[in-house]
Amino acid sequence: MKELPDDIRAVEATLFAAEEPMTEREIVDYVGEGVDVASALQVLAEQYAGRGINLVERGKRWHFQTAADMAHILRRERDEVRKLSRAAVETLAIIAYHEPVSRAEIEAIRGVQISKGTLDVLMEAGWVRPAGRREVPGRPLIYATTATFLQHFGLSSRRDLPGIDDLKAAGLLDPIDAAMEQLELETQRDED
Fold it and tell me: What stretches pass through the bilayer (predicted)?
């Protein structure tokens, strides 16, 4: 394999040393204005195609990543899958859809008290954080979701959370809730 020109090697070195994916503009800031970064990226992407690592673009940001078919080789530890309790899932959903929300508000929506451990588990996972205090008597602590929550669930923002119709279509709503809703609709029709 012949040696690459210095401009291309500079782009390669910059991406290799980067802690996070970089935009073309960020790369230019490192290698200088005189370098044709777009062309260098294409040359490098072609050269790394089919190898153990690939140069890829995701969301207009470039980075090296392990080839998908080789990723299993590097896995030495398995992430422990920890299933959340129903209370934790309900609490997380309430916080995500109603944030910022206090413990009392969570309990009012759920209809039952929550244990402190439930919030602790969600904070330990990095999905929920204290978001200050409500400006009401007693100044209760309020909770909100984190960027880690969005990242873990593949959301750009809270606006990407599924709506009620999406949840119904996916079959994620409790069948009893759906049956009760259907009964209410039938009752309304009968009254009309």
Answer: none
